[in-house]
Amino acid sequence: MDAIRRALGRLSLLYALIFLAAALLHAGAGPGPLRRPPIPPAVIVETLCCAAMLIGAYGALKPRPWAWDGLIYTHAAALGGVLLGILATAFAPAAQAGTLLVLYHGTIATLLAAGLGAAFYLSRVRR
To answer: What stretches pass through the bilayer (predicted)?
Structure first.
């Protein structure tokens, strides 16, 4: 169980970096073809998702008593943010919702759902 907790903690750190990069891209900072007009609500959501994943990673990598609950709550919060992004992309004009944006949201939602499922299952098994 400890190995899986640490693995989920490391993945949470990776997801936090991905959310940070996405926040920067949504802020309008990025290399040539990835540069898009700034979307302030997306920057806020991506930053909150990054902070949530950092908290979950901290709890998992420094064995805290709340590590499993922290992984569940932070994965759920980040997944909620990504689902909000998917919804916003669905209602965005076609010119704004690029293929890369749809691919990013789908991939990160799948990874977060898998992590959430693993944290749920393993937190119940260990009791």
So the answer is: 43-61, 73-95, 101-122
Q: How far apart are CA 92 and CA 11, in angstroms?
A: 30
pLDDT tens-digit map of 8-26: 999 999 999 999 999 998 8
* Tokens linked to 100: 């890369």
Provide the token pair at 34: 């990835």
Cα angle, residue 111 at apex, residues 108 and 114 outer, rounded to 5°: 150
Q: Could you state, in order of their start, the residue ranges of all structural domains in the chain?
A: 2-125
Question: What digits encode the pLDDT tens for the residues 76-110?
Answer: 999 999 999 899 888 877 656 677 788 889 999 99
Q: Which residues of 24-51 are buried (b: 16+ CB within 10 A; e: fewer)?
A: ebbbeeeeeeeebeebeebbebbbbbbb
Using DSSP's 3-state secondary structure scheme, residue 120 falls into helix
Phi, psi of 108 (to 5 degrees): -70, -35
Q: Give the whole-angstrom CA distance, residue 59 versus residue 36.
A: 34
